[in-house]
Amino acid sequence: MNVTLRIILMMLFIFQLSCQKNSHETNEIRYFSQLTGIISPYFDYQPRGEINRSEASNMNHYRVIYDTENKISELSYYKGENKSNESYFRTHTVKYNYRDKKLERTYYNLEGEKAFMWRHYYMGGPIHKEVFALSNDGRKASLIFEDTVGNQAVTTLGTALITWETLNERTFIQAQFKLDGSPNLLTEYFPFYKSRITANKRNHLLLIENVNEDGLLSMSDSAGYARVKFVFDEFGNEMSWEFQDVDGNLVNRVPFRKMDHGYAKWTYQKYWKNRMLGLVDSVSEKYFGANSNPIENNFSIHETFYKMTKGGDLKSIEYYGQNKEPRMHPQQGFFRMSFQYDSKGKRSVVQRFDVEGAEIE
Description:
Layout: H1 3-25, E1 28-35, E2 47-51, H2 53-56, E3 60-66, E4 72-79, E5 82-83, E6 93-99, E7 102-108, E8 129-134, E9 140-146, E10 152-153, E11 161-166, E12 171-177, E13 183-184, E14 194-199, E15 205-210, E16 227-232, E17 238-244, E18 265-274, E19 279-288, E20 303-308, E21 314-320, E22 336-341, E23 347-353, E24 359-360
Antiparallel strand pairs: 1-2, 1-3, 3-4, 4-5, 4-6, 6-7, 7-8, 8-9, 9-10, 9-11, 11-12, 12-13, 12-14, 14-15, 15-16, 16-17, 17-18, 18-19, 19-20, 20-21, 21-22, 22-23, 23-24
């Protein structure tokens, strides 16, 4: 090899190293106070309430790493400076792997070990990896699950496969299937087998609609309604839900399995610390009937009241009747539940109380 060729090869090697270094350096780390609520894994995780590094050190937050194409590469949850598993997906970190016509999301705990994630639209299961197949234009087309050793996993709800048909920029059709190929429900709370789901202009959830095999809006006998309408404010804070028939009229939820029912709407009254960041001192959740009148659900509960700690953790839950009288929740078995946390933000003490204030052992 002559000297000139050696010099050229050395320059190419140095150039490649430089490119790799620059690519790594252009990765961006940002911090957010919340993730916006979603009902389907078709929606990407949506960090909101951006804060700076100094602010993040004193509050619960998500640390988000973006790649050079401004896509999320890694998303982790912290309580101040401490790693935490108490995230929206109930473990510390989710890592993204973008491949040709495929997206993989894998989950890890605060020790860096492989972990199972949890969302209410799965209700658990040995889900370490979500494997999304993408369409030619990069939209999510289907989803299967894998456990920590690479075997196909099934959610606690029994779902092995989710498929999507994108209708437009804001609307898609979702269907769920069991391992044997039979249809499965969206969730027990939303017992739709085939759903048309729509986002608003800010990409926050707007509608979940029950559709038949022809894609037409129809009443669900199991649910007692055809459509759920959600209201989010401009910052991504969830404010109300409505259950409607095919004509848009409010209708009361009907009994289905162990789900609560007997109401047509619920609203959140939030006592803000910082609305833009989604931070509250407390939240009042109230139920209303088909005539928009205050109502108690089948558990004789009209209001659920949540108090938060200064750092943003749940401090207590209380249940009340329509006249603000304390109520024992017959399914939960308490009037009030309170939580305490250790110095690293980990929940350390949970106490339950009856309406007289006596602790329930």
